[in-house]
Design goal:
This protein has 166 residues and is an alpha+beta fold. The chain has one domain (25-150): Nuclear Transport Factor 2, Chain: A. Helices cover 31% and strands 37% of the residues. The protein contains four helices and seven strands, in the order H-E-H-H-E-E-H-E-E-E-E. The protein has helices spanning 2-16, 29-45, 48-53, 72-84; strands spanning 24-25, 55-62, 69-70, 87-100, 103-114, 122-134, 140-149. A hairpin with a 5-residue loop joins strand 6 and strand 7. The longest helix is centred in the first third of the chain and has 17 residues, at 29-45. The relative contact order is 0.18.
Length: 166
């Protein structure tokens, strides 16, 4: 399944770029990093309207063990429901980002602090991929968002290529 997703992603990037234009590092990686940091800050504050504003109107999130969540209002409600289930905070680490045309792809990992009812706290380690899409107004919004669990000890392949804010 992973190779299939990569193939779809490559086709999406190719369709969004000028013919013959190779994928390249995101022109302003700090901008997508700041947008990602805005997600983390909003989630940690419980500001789900701010999270929703980071997603395009036609965004789709693909949570693990679940069907797709389509559209900004549904995605905003989804993130609120995760907080209600006990996820208290998110830490984010960008590993790589590239762009082609009006799309940018970011990969990384996150750690969720989960505090269900009771005193025990758990850490959940995730890997993710975001596809950012440049909007007509020039802003970048999350267009596709997919993630799944990974072992607590990340593999060498998940080591960031640049220092993270976290």
């Amino acid at each position: 399944m992973r190779r299939g997703l990569s193939g779809i992603l490559v086709l999406s990037l190719a369709a969004a770029s000028t013919p013959g234009e190779p994928a390249r590092p995101v022109p302003h990686p700090g901008k997508t990093r700041r947008l990602g940091d805005a997600f983390v800050d909003a989630f940690n504050r419980g500001d789900f309207a701010a999270i929703g504003a980071l997603y395009a109107e036609d965004a789709i999130a693909f949570p693990p063990q679940s069907g797709p969540v389509e559209g900004r209002p549904a995605i905003e409600a989804f993130w609120k429901s995760t907080r209600d289930l006990g996820i208290r905070s998110v830490e984010r680490n960008v590993i790589d980002a590239e762009s082609a045309g009006n799309l940018a792809v970011e990969t990384g990992r996150e750690v969720l602090r989960v505090q269900p009812v009771g005193p025990a706290e758990a850490l959940v380690h995730l890997k993710y991929m975001l596809v950012w899409k440049k909007q007509k107004d020039g802003s970048w919004k999350v267009y596709r968002d997919i993630w799944n669990n990974m072992p607590a000890a990340p593999s060498a392949a998940m080591t960031p290529v640049a220092p993270s804010h976290h």
